[in-house]
Amino acid sequence: MNRRQVFVNGIIKENPVLILLIGLCPTLAVSGSANDGFGMGIAATFVLIASNILISAVRKWTPDQIRIPVFIIIISTFVTIVDYTMHAADPVLYANLGVFVPLIVVNCIILGRAEAYAYKNDVISSTLDGIGMGLGFTLTITVLGAIREIIGNGTITLLNYELLNLGEGFKPALMFIMPPGAFLVMGLLIALNRLLIRKRG
Known about the structure:
single chain; 201 residues; mainly alpha; 4% strand
């Protein structure tokens, strides 16, 4: 597989949420708005790229028997950096994401890519894999959050800016910013993504 394909696969054919169906817990829990979804996506993407790079760089000196503890130490280091940085830079977003920021340590996407890809491939390919998977996750959780927010609240907020407000005349369907709405929109996105893949052959 060439490096361009490695990058693209994470966004479309191997999208971690829509195809591989991993990382669903934070995806469903913090996608009540586009802003929260985007923040979670960026945080996870940073950890994914950084941990992929370091795991790939030290893979030749990491014995198979202790690889999982090594993965956890590397990932938790970058999660700590994200945790403190987000807490200082955007306390509101940090409060909204809550426990799901430190739980990035055990996110199936990050551990899965460390085991399935970074531990077996060179640094450049692992970096591209991390970027592709991170973009796929970020795009999915942001779109999911935007759809839920506009139907459930009549707004779209991104990077703390209100991009759209349907006004007082709009009657929101509050179910969409609650857990059942997350499952419903997620199911529709999975179906739409598979339809697009099928049409492309």
